[in-house]
């Protein structure tokens, strides 16, 4: 069963996985009933989380079986809840690129948000467009989320500049990517084209680069000011572990 589940995650296209997840969440929580780990997003506890990731970047005990949050989603939620005005400011204009299923319904139902989602293919997105050339006017949104997208696109700097363009002056956002902390520089090689080789070099079959510690500088090159937030410095270690968020899960908060 575990091998089959892993095969599904690593093989099926994201739109299909999104649809299947609605069925999965009906019974998976019953299989993991317990109180050893906790998801701050759905506020439910379990005996453990599910595993997730490719063969190269596989992690155990990280995927919430109810709302399908990963480490990055739980870290982002804690930041939004404890360190931002996301839940309190009225008429906050938000653009969410590649909207995560664990957030989509929650954010859609927030009465203080003017919430729009965008993606190339996702069935839950409001707008469908290529991030390299966003068909929207300048200075539109106070908040922009774009997580684990830049490792997929051809020209990440161009996409970052487009997001900067549509962000309002004074706006902010969260832009997470997978980062190899052992690398100072981002690794790209456009001669690597097969899914097998991309997984080997970039950690997933559809990634085209692997970011290094210079990721904040790439965001700055696009125009953003960048704050690197380490939530583990502000939370008891046992609570951070209960949420299954590793210390390496830093948040990249951008501002215009």
Characteristics of this structure?
256 residues, alpha/beta, Rossmann fold, 2 domains, 7-stranded mixed beta sheet, 8 helices, globular
Written description of the protein model:
With 256 residues, the protein is of the alpha/beta class. The chain has helices at 2-11, 14-31, 71-83, 101-108, 156-166, 195-202, 215-221, 237-242, and strands at residues 33-39, 44-46, 50-52, 59-63, 92-97, 113-119, 127-128, 141-146, 167-174, 187-188, 209-210, 225-229, 251-255. It has a 7-stranded mixed sheet, sandwiched between helices. The chain has a two-stranded antiparallel sheet with strand order 1-2. It is 32% helix and 24% strand. The termini are far apart. Helix 4 links the parallel strand 5 and strand 6 (113-119). The protein contains 8 helices and 13 strands. The mean pLDDT is 91. The chain has 2 domains: 2-70, no CATH class; 72-255, Rossmann fold (3-Layer(aba) Sandwich).
In short:
This protein has 256 residues and is of the alpha/beta class.
State the low-pLDDT regions, or none: none
CATH superfamily heading of the largest domain: Vaccinia Virus protein VP39
Task: Based on Cα principal axes, name the global outline.
Answer: globular
Strands side by side in the biggest sheet: 7-6-5-8-9-13-12
Helix content: 25-40%
Q: Class of the largest domain, according to the CATH hierarchy?
A: Alpha Beta
String of helices and strands? HHEEEEHEHEEEHEEHEHEHE
CATH A-level architecture of the largest domain: 3-Layer(aba) Sandwich
Helix count? 8
* Mean of residue pLDDT values: 91
Strand content: 15-25%
CATH topology of the largest domain: Rossmann fold
- Major β-sheet annotation: 7 strands, mixed
């Amino acid at each position: 069963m575990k091998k089959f589940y892993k095969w599904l995650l690593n093989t099926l296209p994201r739109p299909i996985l999104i649809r299947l997840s609605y069925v999965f969440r009906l019974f998976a929580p019953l299989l993991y009933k317990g109180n050893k780990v906790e998801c701050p997003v759905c506020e439910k506890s379990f005996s453990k989380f599910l595993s997730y990731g490719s063969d190269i970047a596989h992690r155990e005990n990280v995927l919430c079986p109810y709302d399908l949050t990963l480490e990055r989603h739980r870290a982002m939620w804690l930041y939004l809840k404890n360190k931002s005005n996301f839940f309190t400011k009225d008429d906050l204009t938000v653009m969410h690129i590649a909207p995560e299923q664990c957030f989509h319904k929650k954010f859609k139902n927030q009465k203080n948000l003017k919430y729009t989602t965008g993606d190339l293919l996702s069935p839950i997105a409001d707008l469908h467009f290529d991030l390299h050339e966003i068909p929207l006017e300048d200075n539109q949104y106070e908040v922009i989320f774009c997580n684990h997208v830049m490792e997929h696109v051809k020209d990440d700097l161009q996409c970052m500049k487009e997001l900067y363009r549509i962000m309002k002056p004074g706006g902010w956002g969260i832009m997470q990517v997978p980062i190899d902390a052992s690398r100072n520089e981002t690794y790209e090689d456009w001669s690597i084209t097969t899914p097998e080789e991309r997984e080997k070099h970039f950690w997933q079959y559809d990634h085209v680069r692997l970011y290094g510690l210079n990721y904040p500088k790439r965001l700055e090159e696009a125009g953003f000011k960048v704050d690197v937030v380490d939530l583990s410095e502000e939370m008891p270690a046992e609570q951070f572990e209960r949420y299954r968020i590793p210390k390496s899960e830093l948040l990249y908060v951008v501002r215009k």
